[in-house]
Design a protein that fits this description.
CATH class of one domain in chain B: Alpha Beta
CATH topology of chain A: Non-ribosomal Peptide Synthetase Peptidyl Carrier Protein, Chain A
Distance between the termini of chain A: 21 Å
Strand content of chain B: 15-25%
Oligomer: heterodimer
Number of strands of chain B: 24
CATH architecture of one domain in chain B: 3-Layer(aba) Sandwich
Order of helices and strands of chain A: HHHH
CATH class of chain A: Mainly Alpha
Shape of chain B: globular
Strand content of chain A: under 5%
Radius of gyration of chain A: 13 Å
Helix content of chain A: 55-70%
CATH architecture of chain A: Orthogonal Bundle
Distance between the termini of chain B: 67 Å
Structural class of chain B: alpha/beta
Number of helices of chain A: 4
Radius of gyration of chain B: 23 Å
Number of helices of chain B: 14
Largest interface: A-B, 24 and 36 residues
CATH topology of one domain in chain B: Rossmann fold
Structural class of chain A: mainly alpha
Number of domains of chain A: 1
Chain lengths: 89, 502
């Protein structure tokens, strides 16, 4: 359920301006190369993710190829949430 | 489908479109992201939308808020609004709450046409109330009327007939920063839009055989012009759903695009790709025009050398449309200019006191043109203040040479006054951009009050460093589609490996 919520939020943010249509496997979408996010939009996107999930991305994470692919970004965010919750307990 | 054109009616954008529906029913009217619609198919959509709008109580003279995406349906909504004599208030669908409220308040929006994703955000912001009609473009959403299920045969496939229009009805109300001062809503009538369309058809010798690419968002006037222009001629509109330089080049090759106007930031990215030997050829192009901001000299040179077609640059604003144009290959010695005034356009460079500048003297660019907009919506005094002796004051700085060519130097608002000296950002940028380690830059001033200056500086610097680290990592032109807004709104030196510290 958490995974679905994370993915739902990410897809919602990505589709503010452009619908993601006709993709067989949305997890493999590179939203940067396909133009779903512009250079200004990425800042809003990152801030939205950090505020929504209470996480902070490192420079390495932001510059990794994984960040730009939907499925891998979802996994990254999930790991960070889990790590944050573990530290809290 | 029955189409009636009254011979004694004034020519309008929609009338011209329907004339072309008669002439070329099966020809592709609009292609967008793998979907295409014929003239007849688009006409059916327009008829169904306009009748639906009328049925639900949208009346002539009312304004429709429209967070727009690039789609065939968006084009049909534009035409339907024009048919009813309504104005659309197009906005970027990703705007934050305050900006949406502001734009729709200034535009006196009564009805809303949007996608589900926008309504989801409106619900979170508690903005769903306050609109007479809320229409959803892409499916069913609670509290909205669904546009998807409307069919032309529901209304007998006919155009709305009893709506008397003069052509002076407002068509588009677009919010901009304006030439000076606070944001203003530029009012463009159907007549204004049609004059601009005709001017561009003449200027670039366009015809029904052309396939015209719009690669900027439809909520900007450039894409609106590029989408409507072909429909008025019987040509084909190619509407790129999203921009990346790769998508742009692939689209031109596959769709055999013949003409486009792109913003200079896009062409800057495209220029880098054009040097690749693995890229598809773009030999269908007859003419490419750069707009919105001057091209950087090295990009301009690169494009002149690599494009085999005509390559132009234009200068203008939303208020005055295109004022000047230059064909770089025809006038190589004037490449640093933004061209000469179009026929029917007068340019005057003025000093602060309104007097005329000498040749070569920098002053404010003012323009007298038949393409002037209808004013600032709801702000007639502000519009009057923006004009001087029939010339619109653009808020841009420039100078004319002895041959009547205009040279753009910057924005009045962007002059940095320091130590009593006027510094033009473009001079600083051109100087810094010459450094090998600098990919892109923009110079701007930051005002700080005397009290708490150190604290403000530290706070700004911390926030800036975080934002800069994101842009530093992402702002590589080869891998990232850079929006022109980025340059204007949030910018740092983008050095390879050397963060900005000062």
């Amino acid at each position: 359920m958490k995974n679905m919520k994370t993915k739902d939020f990410i897809l919602e943010e990505l589709q503010k301006e452009y619908d993601i249509e006709g993709l067989e496997n949305i997890d493999r979408l590179n939203f940067v190369e396909e133009g779903y996010i512009t250079s200004l939009g990425i800042i809003q996107f990152v801030i939205a993710l950090e505020e929504q999930f209470g996480i902070e991305f490192t420079e390495e994470e932001l510059s990794s190829d994984d960040f730009k692919i939907v499925g891998k970004l979802v996994a990254m965010v999930e790991r960070k949430i889990a790590s944050k919750e573990e530290k809290a307990t | 489908m029955e189409i009636i054109i009254q011979e004694d009616k004034m020519e309008s954008i929609v009338d011209l479109f329907f004339l072309n529906v008669e002439k070329y029913p099966k020809k592709t009217a609009v292609w967008c992201g793998g979907k295409e619609v014929s003239y007849r198919g688009l006409a059916e959509k327009v008829c169904s939308y306009e009748n639906f709008f009328l049925e639900i109580g949208i009346k002539k003279g009312e304004n429709i808020g429209f967070p727009m995406n690039n789609s065939i349906e968006s084009v049909a909504v534009m035409l339907a609004a024009a048919e009813l004599g309504c104005a659309i208030v197009p906005i970027n669908p990703t705007l934050p709450k305050g900006a949406v409220e502001s734009a729709f308040a200034v535009g006196k929006v009564k009805h809303l046409v949007a996608r589900k994703s926008f309504y989801q955000r409106c619900e979170k912001w508690d903005l769903m109330a306050g609109y007479f009609n809320r229409i959803c473009m892409d499916g069913i959403y609670p509290g909205t009327l669904c546009l998807q299920n409307i069919k032309a045969e529901d209304y007998g496939g006919k155009r709305c007939q009893n709506i008397q229009k003069t052509g002076k009805e407002l068509f588009i109300i677009t919010t901009t920063s304006g030439s000076t001062g606070s944001p203003k809503a530029i009012a463009i009538s159907q007549e204004d839009k049609l004059k601009r369309i005709h001017k561009h058809i003449d200027l670039y010798h366009l015809g029904e055989e052309d396939r015209i690419l719009a690669s900027t968002p439809l909520y900007h006037s450039l894409a609106e012009r590029l989408v409507l222009l072909p429909l008025c001629m019987g040509a084909t509109s190619i509407l790129l759903p999203r921009f990346t330089p790769n998508l742009w080049i692939q689209c031109i090759e596959k769709q055999k695009v013949t003409f486009t106007i792109a913003v200079s930031a896009q062409l800057g990215q495209v220029a880098e790709l054009l040097s690749s030997p693995f890229l598809p050829k773009v030999d269908s192009l007859k003419c490419v025009v750069s707009s919105s901001a001057p091209l950087e000299p090295h990009i301009r040179t690169n494009l002149i050398n690599r494009l085999s077609c005509e390559f132009h640059e234009m200068y203008g604003t939303s208020e005055i449309s295109t004022a000047t144009d230059i064909d770089f290959k025809e006038m190589p010695e004037k490449q640093k200019s933004v061209g000469k005034a179009l026929k029917g356009v007068d340019i005057a460079i003025r000093k602060e006191d309104g007097g005329l500048c000498r040749v070569g003297e920098i002053g404010e660019i003012t323009c007298k043109t038949e393409l002037l907009c209808s004013g600032y919506y709801g702000m007639p005094d502000a519009f009057e203040e923006s004009c001087l002796e029939g010339f619109f004051k653009t808020g841009d700085l420039g100078y004319m040479d002895g041959d009547g060519y205009l040279y753009y130097t910057g924005r009045i608002k962007e002059i940095i006054i320091t130590g009593g000296i006027n510094v033009y950002p473009i001079d600083v940028e051109n100087c810094v951009a010459r450094l090998d380690s600098v990919k892109e830059c923009a110079a701007f001033s930051y005002q700080m009050s005397g009290w708490g200056r150190w604290w403000q500086w530290q706070s700004w610097r911390r926030r800036a460093k975080k934002l800069m680290s994101m842009t530093f990592r992402f702002n590589a032109p080869k891998t990232w589609p850079i929006s022109s807004n980025h340059i204007k709104s949030l910018w740092w030196m983008n050095c390879q490996g050397t963060p900005w510290e000062n």
